[in-house]
Amino acid sequence: MSNQQEQPNISHQVVHLPAPTAWPVVLAFGLMLVFASLVTNPGIAILGGVLVLFGCIGWFREVLPHEHHEQIAVEVETIPIITARPRIARIQVDETHRARLPLETYSVMSGVKGGIAGGIAMIFPAIIYGLISHHSIWYPINLLGGAGIPNWHYASAADLTAFNWTALLVATAIHGVTSILVGLLYGALLPMLPRHPIVLGGVIAPLLWTGLLHSILGIINPFFAQRINWAWFLASQFAFGIVAGLVVARQGRVRTAQYLSFAERIGLETPGLMHERPQDEER
Amino acid sequence: MSDRAIPIGESIDLTPPQGMAAGWLELLHDWVITVDHKKLGIMYIGYALIFLLVGGLEAMLIRVQLAVSNNHFLSPETYNRMFTMHGTTMVFLMGMPIIIGIANYLVPLMIGARDMAFPRLNAFSFWMTAFGGLLLYYSFIGGVGLYGAGSAPDVGWFAYAPLTEKAFSPGHTTDYWALALIVSGFGTIGAAVNIIATVISMRCKGMTLFRMPLLVWLNLVVASLILVTISPLTAAQIMLEIDRYLGGHFFDTQAGGSAIVWIHFFWIFGHPEVYVLVLPAFAIANEIIPVFSRKAIFGYPAMVAASVGIAFISLGVWAHHMFTVGMTSASNTFFVLSTEIVAIPTGIKIFNWLATIWGGKVRFTTAMLFCIGFLFQFLIAGLTGIMLSVAPWDWQLHNSFFVIAHFHYVLVGAITFCLFAAFYYWYPKVTGRMLDEKLGKWHFWLFVIGFHVTFDFMHIPGLLGMPRQIYTYEPGRGWDSWNMIVSLGGAVQAIAVLVFVFNLVWSYSKGTVAGADPWDAWTLEWATTSPPPVYNFAVEPVVSSRRPLWDLKHPEDPDSRYE
Amino acid sequence: MSTIPITGAVDRPWILPSRGRVGMSALIVAESAIFTIFVIAYIYNIGRSISGPTPQQVLEVPIFATICLLSSSLTIWIAERALHRSNMKMFGLWWLVTWVLGVIFLGGTAVEWRKLIYQDGLTIHTNLFGTTYYSLVGLHASHVTVGLIGILTVLILTLSGKVAVRHAERIGVFALYWHFVDAVWVVVFTVVYIVGRS
Fold first, then answer.
1. Global ipTM
2. Under DSSP, is residue A142 helix (H, G, I), strand (E, B) or coil?
3. Using CB atoms, which chains have 3+ pairs under 8 A with A?
4. What pTM does this model have?
């Protein structure tokens, strides 16, 4: 650390600073006049043009061949850099000050895998529901895919039990994307309940999700809302959640960054939270 | 580098040192031809303060006109000029010069340099800005105009086409607006180029990019943002003048041109401009809050990243000013989302400021009080901003007084509060004397009360449907009492500003002598005398951490150990 | 704890980028933003003119002028290299070539405009195409003009023997501007003569 007070006392030093010059203000005034001439009198432009020309030439000669400098004698004055507050306190952070985050959890990708597996598993209760209630495996598919088909607001029961290409495609797309996204969300939420993935995925999440949908489905998909059977819907949600949870539970756990100190985790300079670097590591 | 080297041997051009200034003419001459960044910074700030008073006076006239229904205090023509000139003045003649002035004064001091990278360009930039402002105000006396009342611009500060076309805006009112802003825009771009070159090429030894004070970092970001925001405005104004003088058709809807394109071009400038103004306010808070909390800023890298992030995001949000123009729903969705994303980096900043204060030994000086006011008000301003970013909400409230209240919450509640904090914090450095704290407390409390009375209640007539820029209104719409309250709050703010101006003048000769380092601060500008000598530092400093003065003050526990 | 740690950075030589190059790069960014707005205005307004003449009818591709302008980027680079080697004759020669190429380009634009105005009757207020064409190409031509004035100044100074190797840095900064002007022409050329005519 170099320190101003430690420098040799050089009281006769001079500093070269750029010399004051009027050319910039002349050039600026000339340019302004050129613009002002448009709203006032064209004659002003001539005056402005002359000033611009002189300003440019003057400025050019100011910096070429050599920049003009002026010498300023330096008065070296020792400015004491001291503080009236020499004591340093460290903020003490108790171990129990904040909720501990888990040291181990599942990776986010395991949630996506769980989502895919759960999405496949969910098909079976849905189809069983279709077979039992309407004797058609296409019924639940049409119900889901109907969201994407115009003019199906008044579809008959026959329409819904028959095979429909568009409905199948739309339903597959909705189901696939939703399964992956829900799986991703599940993976991201896992650190909140890392010890019991099956409870989180198989019980808590389906209940929350179904409750949420129950209250808002009428707004987002009224067609679906009219015909949905909530018991079966909940059952297929449980199927999704339990299978997803099982898949996740089979994945290996990963360590979280909670192993590191807080300051290390976010790379911040935080007095009190940061541990000093050991002496022997210093360069 | 060869650039920075002092010329060697015979090649030195020795202009004789200036003699002591005798008399005010010599003094004036010294200031006019100066290339010193400190003098230019002071001139920028003084110029901006004058226009703060002028723009404030215009605001007061607007508020008197709107205080009661069916009022004819101003003529409709004058009223149009007042709101146009109030907006234009406050953004271009007050906001931009003051932030550039503060950067001009502080950036070289904070990075341990003796001047800006291009001192002559610096002088040129200031004079362009200054003459641009003079040209704009010359419009009041410069022409007969349409109604014999001078020809000050009257098309709103955003000057929407086709109102600005020759057919609808005869005379030179719009030309004054465009030409004056082109002139001052050149100055602004020059200043931005200079700040960038200074920050990159003039840092003292050891001042790596990640040891720069956050104020320097944010001004680097702002200068970069100016390059890509002011230039589009200049380009659009050149197009407007081509339309008006050469008969072009850029914004001439009769000939196939598009008025919507002007709106796009204007807001491509106009929205990032908000961040050009608010980031320097953040920069000020970044310096003041740690010093008065007696702690290092929390999350320095996160603050830098958030600032750069805000600058990038701000380039992609302009059309949230245009939800009512009638864009496709895809565009609406994009601009809703991009606008809402701004909340993430700004949220990071607010949490970092709170974490800086947390656990600190807070000293409630006037500067710190203004910063705390800023934190609360900026939060509210951000929240109404998120409300307005939602397209359906905006359809309901676009161009209402709710919008006016929202952006004044940003411009006054956040930016002006930080600027006042900066005055209380750096005035001792600039003049060598402290601003009076007692008057400062009066200033703060009057201003904070006036601010809230004005702008909290201004939201309500907006929600009740009162549009902006209307001359007057019928009684019985439920707007009357709210407008009266708002106008009274404005008067309280005006009194507070007068207290502040009095404080500036009074403390210049009567304030207590400050000394080099009155606040026990940590950045390099406090390592030299107050006011600093013309060469800033007798010996060029060398730093080895973000808080060089902390290292000197606490040699047993320097910051450099943690880097 | 008793010793103050020495950080490595202090002892290393402290080299920062040249302020001239940084400043010119910043200016180029600002200029690019201005050009971007004019280019967007041009592209947006392609085919929106409600009366003729249209670009398909009147525009001819200025191949020769374009080749001249683009090759001037090469010659200015050769001149710079000669300056670094202190070969003043070669520097002057290539610098002169650069200037001549620039003048040919500007002359080409003048001839083209003369034809458009007097032969095809296209002016800036004829239609939207005229407005956008003259402002975009004119904006570029004004930048070429500024560059040519700069090149001419250096040329005169070279002929009077005042330019030396120590000016290489400043001339290098100026050359950056000239490269920028050339690069912008690539964009303007593509937009005006290729996209705009198709």
1. 0.91
2. helix
3. B, C
4. 0.81
